[in-house]
Design brief:
The chain is α/β, with parallel strands linked by helices and 376 residues long. It has three domains: 57 residues; 55 residues; 207 residues, Rossmann fold (3-Layer(aba) Sandwich). Helices cover 43% and strands 17% of the residues. It is built from 13 helices and eleven strands. Strand 9, helix 11 and strand 10 form a beta-alpha-beta unit. The longest helix is centred in the first third of the chain and has 27 residues. It is elongated.
């Protein structure tokens, strides 16, 4: 194996030597900080940085590669690329200059964080808080995983908006177009009425999509619960009065651009004139991070009390949820995992969301889990 060592006065100079001789795709195997050849009596102690590297294309001259060897070298190459990525971001953050040593467990955890969709600065933050960059020795991989994931869990806040209300609970789902508000309302109504044994009523104040009103009325008919369409303030007042004895009222709202501040303000004024309405911002997990942040900021004019994340089954980069929590901290109440009504929804729990991020679970949920997840 063509493994070579390169020494220089700084980590960047050493990396440049590697690139000059082995090319930009060279695989960096290890790096360390060492004293120069000065004697112990020297007043000026200098340090060198040593990088061990190999060519990216090297596979061994004359080697006979069967299927098993091919799998082995493929796995080795993947691991070496992960090490290279780790060294790259450590170098950018200045940690190599400070004498930090790479922890093999840190490389694995970093890869899992990035692959889950957690942004690089936040991945570094979780690793640092988990103790991955301590220079006094390596932390066992299992312990490092647990400590880093505990740091992620600290970011996650959860709430159940229907568990502690002594009187009538009125909740409105708000959010951009296409995030699945109407389907989520149907899932909530079915689980609350059938499994939660609550008397539920529905109101649609979507005056832009007639199909959404019809869809909600169809769900209500199947469940045997009342549903009203309120296209004006007087109709909304009438609907609330007719359902004043219901335990829970769920309001489906029109989806519109989160840049349409005039409509957002109009909705805020509409619901603000009635009894306390708790609003929940529905965001799709497949929305790009910038638009998700803007939606949360602009819909924040309505003072929403929790997030509901939908379409988590349509992406593996569910770490955008953590990114959003770090930008605008707010509890998560529910998460949807598919199209099925009422199955594909679960009450948010710290362990449930952590599993969703890193194991792809819970997914394809059941109504039973809707009832029990809050007990975790």
């Amino acid at each position: 194996m063509q493994v070579r060592k390169y020494k220089a006065g700084s980590i960047n100079d050493a990396i440049n030597l590697v690139k000059q001789e082995l090319g930009p795709d060279a695989l960096i195997l290890s790096t360390r900080k060492m004293r120069s050849g000065k004697g112990p009596q020297s007043y000026k102690v200098k340090h060198l940085f040593e990088i061990t590297a190999m060519p990216a294309s090297y596979s061994g001259e004359g080697a006979v590669v069967d299927g098993r060897n091919h799998d082995f070298f493929g796995s080795l190459r993947s691991e070496l690329m992960s090490i290279k990525e780790m060294i790259f971001f450590l170098s950018r953050s200045g940690r190599l200059e400070q004498g930090f040593r790479l922890n093999p467990g840190a490389i694995e955890v970093y890869g899992r964080l990035i692959r889950s969709g957690i942004a690089e600065p936040y991945a570094q933050l979780f690793l640092e808080k988990g103790g991955a960059f301590k220079g006094d020795g390596e932390l066992p991989s299992k312990d490092l995983h647990e400590r880093v994931f505990k740091e992620v869990m600290k970011i996650i806040q959860v709430t159940d908006p229907f568990s502690h209300d002594s009187g009538q609970a009125i909740s409105a789902l708000i959010g951009p177009t296409g995030v699945g508000k109407t389907t989520t309302i149907a899932k909530l109504a079915a689980n609350l009425s059938l499994k939660g044994k609550k008397s539920v009523g529905l109101i649609s104040i979507d005056n832009y999509r007639i199909a959404a009103v019809d869809q909600l009325k169809t769900y209500a008919a199947i469940l045997g619960i009342p549903c009203f369409a309120a296209l004006s303030s007087s109709e909304l007042e009438f609907a609330l009065e007719r359902m004043k004895k219901r335990d829970i009222i769920l309001m489906d709202t029109a989806g519109y651009s989160h840049y349409d501040l005039e409509r957002i303000e109009g909705f805020r004024e509409l619901i603000g004139s009635y009894r306390p309405v708790r609003t929940h911002l529905v965001l799709s997990a497949v929305t790009n991070e910038f638009e998700m942040e803007r939606a949360a900021k602009n819909f924040g004019r309505i003072d929403f009390s929790s997030y509901i994340f939908t379409k988590t089954d349509e992406t593996q980069a569910r770490g955008v949820i953590i990114n959003q929590l770090l930008k605008l901290s707010m509890p998560i109440s529910f998460v949807t995992t598919g199209q099925r009504v009422p199955e594909d929804i679960f009450k948010a729990t710290k362990t449930g969301i952590l599993g969703l991020l890193f194991k792809g679970e819970p997914q394809n949920g059941s109504g039973k889990r809707f009832k029990e997840d809050g007990q975790k």
